Amino acid sequence: MNPLLPEAVQRNLVLASRSPRRIDILNGLGFEFEVLPAHGHVEDSAECDAAFERAVVRARLKAEDVARRRPRSTVIGADTVVIIDDEVLEKPADDREAFRFLKQLSGREHVVVTGVAIRREADGLDLAAKEETRVRFRDLSDTDVRRYVASGEGRDKAGSYAVQGLGAGLVRTIDGCFYNVVGFPVSLFFDLLRKVPPLP
Q1: Cβ proximity of 82 and 111 under 8 Å
Q2: Rounded Cα–Cα distance for residues 113 and 34 (Å)
Q3: Which residues of the chain have pLDDT under 50?
Q4: Which of 106, 123, 173, 183 is 20 to 30 A from 70, comparing alpha carbons?
């Protein structure tokens, strides 16, 4: 249990994601939870033209999908996107796309948006919000980018990098929540969890 939050709001937590980063963050905070990923088609079915809302829409869909299977559990959904020039950079399809993403981010500022949703079917609990963090990259040479892409670290990450790993060497400044850039904004999650009423 996390000592900063009431025990009642921490019961029967389920994370609707198999993301190692989110699992590590929640474990590090002392939460006890089950991992039950949403079905893969859920994320693909999300329809949202507004770049800054897409992560919230997907987080909600993930939480809803798992909450239907676990109606008395408090289900946590999350989704992260990287936005630059109103373009959403998802996980790269291959190393060529990863190279393009990183060159696009080189020397410039982008926004990392993570949507977090909390859903419980039994009492209709439905909370969601998003965190935005501004990140500026160093000027990266083609060699820098090729070496980072070759490490494989960014292959399953939005924007093709991991700020908590080798990708820290790509970053010049972070304005906002560091954990949001990792993929799970802790402060926002605490704010939402404090609003969760205990089940009777």
Answers
A1: yes
A2: 24
A3: none
A4: 183
Residue 179's nearest CA partner among 43, 33, 78 is 78
DSSP 8-state class, residue 195: T
- Token pair in block for residue 46: 């999300």
175 is catalytic: no
How many Å apart are CA 178 and CA 54, to the nearest integer?
Answer: 20
* Backbone dihedral region for residue 12 (phi beyond 0: left; psi -120 to 50: alpha; all else: beta): left
Residue with tokens 């980072």: 148
Both structure tokens of 107: 């020397």
Residue ranges of domains in the chain: 7-193
Catalytic residue among 24, 44, 49, 79: 79
And the tokens for 134? Answer: 């501004």
* Rounded Cα distance, 163 and 175, in Å: 13
pLDDT digits (tens, 9 = 90+) for 95-134: 999 999 999 999 999 999 999 999 999 999 999 999 999 9
Looking at the structure, give the CATH architecture of the domain made up of residues 7-193. Alpha-Beta Complex (3.90)
Question: Under a CB-based contact definition with an 8 Å cutoff, are residues 137 and 103 in contact?
Answer: no
Contact 80, 112 (CB under 8 A): yes
Hey, how many other C-beta atoms are within 10 angstroms of the C-beta on 152? Answer: 11
C-alpha of 135 from chain center = 15
State if pTM tops 0.90: yes
